[in-house]
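cron nightly-structures :: item 1 of 1
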Amino acid sequence: MFIARLIADPNSDGTGDLESRIAPLSRALAHTDSCPHYDTAQMLDLDHPVLELRWYFDDAGVIFNILDTHFPDCDSLITTQDIAVPRLLVSDMDSTMIEQECIDELADFAGLKAQISDITERAMQGELDFEDALRERVALLEGLEESAIGRCLEKRITPTPGAKVLCETLKAHGCRNVLVTGGFHHFGDAVGKQLGFDRVVGNRLGVADGKLTGALDGPITDASTKKAVLIEEAAKLGEGTHVLATGDGANDIPMIQAATYGFAYRAKPKARAAANGRIDHGDLTAILSLLGIYRGNWVTG
């Protein structure tokens, strides 16, 4: 069985009446042999409208196509098991838990933002080897004053809407939160503390005499690292642990695919296609609604 949950775009113009779309969906599927008819459809008993559909079918791709056709303004989660609050969150940082790409913003202090952001975008799309692209960008920052990192954090870096509520709510429900970034500890440690993460894994910028050396200090945190951290942390919590992962780029795909609930947040096409959860419209709190957590139980303070 596949379980699909849908939540309408909170910024839509009134077309978010999910219940009203069930009948047209049923009529459309009844005349399409290649599409499965859902077994049940119901609005969940929550304080926010969430529609749950259940299918006895074995092709998630077909179901996603149905949802994209009939519910294009909705965020969604599809899974083959009953949905429960996860005990582990493993998340990307840049463009997921924060709104920016840290290296692009830092590059602006060196007058190199356009050049570096182009490389970042191509790496996120999966067009470039991650490690090569990372080393190339870091090399361009050689000689930049280390103090620029603090100024960048203060003036440029902002949490993604809903990030802190998501992290703190999950923590209040017994979840361990781990931030794993292909970015840098100089940013990740501060962001992790601000948002409520228990552990931060990332790359380290080389620094000497108060300036960036243009090299990295220590091993690379890449796509394989992200997946390895997820597996390591899940193993500590025991077999059968429900794991939530969030990310937006090609570097996040192995982690997203290894999770019980792998959410692509406003993601690049390859990452979105790899995920079984998609947030394209709402903020990160949409994940809480799709997991079935009442808004009254969200940690908003």
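cron nightly-structures :: done
DSSP finds twelve helices and twelve strands in the chain.
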